[in-house]
Structure formats: structure tokens, C-alpha cells
Amino acid sequence: xxxxxxxxxxxxxxxxxxxxxxxxxxxxxxxxxxxxxxxxxxxxxxxxxxxxxxxxxxxxxxxxxxxxxxxxxxxxxxxxxxxxxxxxxxxxxxxxxxxxxxxxxxxxxxxxxxxxxxxxxxxxxxxxxxxxxxxxxxxxxxxxxxxxxxxxxxxxxxxxxxxxxxxxxxxxxxxxxxxxxxxxxxxxxxxxxxxxxxxxxxxxxxxxxxxxxxxxxxxxxxxxxxxxxxxxxx
Length: 234
What we know:
Blueprint: H1 3-43, H2 50-86, H3 95-117, H4 131-155, H5 166-181, H6 194-224
Helix pairs in contact: 1-2, 1-6, 3-4, 3-6, 4-5
């Protein structure tokens, strides 16, 4: 497999999946953000400034689209590295199936687990004073979930038969303990429409992780010269 072609496939697929994420976010999640922002402005007696905010949102949307693509490339780089190193150990022969299994596992470990305990918040949920604590708690759970998943997968590589099932069970146990031990979101009570926004955010992230392998596999074949991942050690 040509390294330059593989890297190009990672970047292009990440940019494409990031664009999908941005489009779904703009269509489903942003209306909830704007409604919550307007409600917050009205509650503060600042509704007169909404027109200026609407103008600002026009060019902010373009920046958000670029940010979605950059974020998509960053996650694709992580995805490509893990796939190249460990993808051949996934329990299936098809490159496409391996790609989707890994994408689903990364969605579970890096999004679903942290969001179950610390879901995304609308404007007006929580206070500025607790923002740092909320971000730190989310990052801590994400780190526990992602790092334990990778470490246990590596540890399972030499296991055979029923013993392999012990490692996913250990990951579930570690995540459960972390979720029980970490405190709840400080000062973040669900605002009106929060659950619709969270569902929209989940749909946007799911769209990203579905689009990434769909673009990555054919591009890696075309640009890299072979179906990834290379079968190697480990």
C-alpha cells in the first residue's frame, strides 16, 4: 500500500465526512441553538440585539462549515491510525465490514459513552462559572472510555475463543465504574427543547461516523493501491 495514497484517503474521507457532519448539524441542531439563544436574550431583556446576532450568524455559519471539515480530518487521522494498526484483527474478512465495525466502536467509545453522562448543552443550560468543570468532566470520561478501549483491544490480541469476550466485558465494567464515580453535570439542568437538540447532535455525529468509512474504503483502494488495513504484527 502506498503511504501517500493512504494519507490522502484519510484526509479526503475526513473532509467529506466532516462536511456531512456540518450539513446535518446546520439542518437539525443549529435551529435549536438559535431558538435557545433568542430565548436567553429575551429573558435578559436583550431581544433588541437579535437582529445584529442574526447578521453575525450568517458569516459564523461559514466558519462552522470550515471547522466541521477540520474536525472531520482530525478524527479521520485517529481513525486511520487505529485502522492501519489494528484493523486486520477485527473479526471479519471484508475491508468494508472492518471499516464500519471500527467506526461504530469509535462512535461508541468517543461519543456515545461521554454523551450518556454529559450530553451536549444548549445555551442557557448551566452557567459560565461551571463551563470549565463541565468540559473537564466530559474530557475525563472520554479519556477513560477511549484509552481503556484501546488498551483492552491490544491486550485481547493474543486471546482465543471465549476468553476474548472477557475484554469487552472489562471495558463495560470500567466505563460503568467511571460513570458512577464521576459527578453529574454541575449546574446544567435541561432547558426546554434540550432533548430534541441532543438527538439532533447525536444524528450529526452518527452521520459523520457512517460517512467516514463509506468514503475511506474505496479511496484507500484507489489511492493506496490495496484494501486496508495491511496485515502485520500485533
